[in-house]
Design goal:
214 residues; alpha/beta; 6-stranded mixed beta sheet; 4-stranded antiparallel beta sheet; 7 helices
Length: 214
């Protein structure tokens, strides 16, 4: 079963064509590597698929339904770990995870369980009361992941989640992503670390200049 179908996506910024009839699919429970040099269109493709950017032409279906900016029922089942840190510096680790989880979850017990799950998954239990701006770079990246997975998404986009992270933290995070994949979460993974891609991904798409090359 395909959880994501992106067909012939076109995105223009004036005279610059960021996506040039770009297409790919993701199967249920699959980890797909989305590879390409800087500026190839990977982040633009993710933003378009998630409805964060409008596009000029093409079609996006997620879980068999057309994806629109107001498709909140679909978005509740999707997670995003962005390349840039999306955390609040002055909040604690716990407060950051609680904020992002509460965007998806209403039930107090479900919310509490999800926060515990995310902290345990990323190994941040002992740092939960520390403010984000007091964390090391590697721990900030782990917190970025915790905020993206707290609601336990069925489809997770990981946009260079281990960039500028030490080798030990990279391994810890990759092993966590492998567990997510093995538990049935579908992953879209961008990275310049080919060893991570080889270990984690079932299939890869190589893109450049907004096109699917292979």
């Amino acid at each position: 079963m395909e959880v994501l179908e992106a067909k012939e996506l076109v995105k223009n910024y004036g005279e610059v064509q960021a996506l040039d009839h770009f297409s790919f699919t993701v199967h249920e429970g699959e980890a797909l590597g989305l590879l390409g040099p800087n500026g190839s269109g990977k982040t633009t493709a993710i933003s378009v698929i998630l409805g964060l950017l409008t596009y000029d032409r093409g079609e996006v279906k997620i879980f068999g339904q057309e994806m629109r900016p107001t498709s909140y029922d679909i978005k509740r089942r999707i997670g995003l770990v962005p390349q840039d840190l999306a955390i609040f510096d002055r909040l604690t680790v716990f407060e950051n995870v609680r904020f992002f989880a509460s965007l998806y979850l209403d039930d107090p017990q479900e919310l509490a369980d999800s926060i515990d799950y995310a902290l345990h998954f990323t190994g941040l239990e002992n740092y939960k009361d520390r403010k984000a701006n007091k964390l090391s770079g590697g721990l900030m990246r782990r917190l970025n992941v915790a905020c993206g997975i707290a609601h336990r998404p069925d489809l997770l986009f990981l946009d260079e989640p281990t960039v500028a992270v030490d080798a030990q933290s990279r391994l810890f995070m990759r092993q966590g992503f492998e567990r997510l994949r093995d538990e049935g979460t579908s992953l879209v993974y961008t990275s310049h670390y080919l060893d991570e891609v080889e270990a984690l991904c079932d299939r890869i798409v190589i893109m450049d200049h907004g096109r699917n090359l292979a």
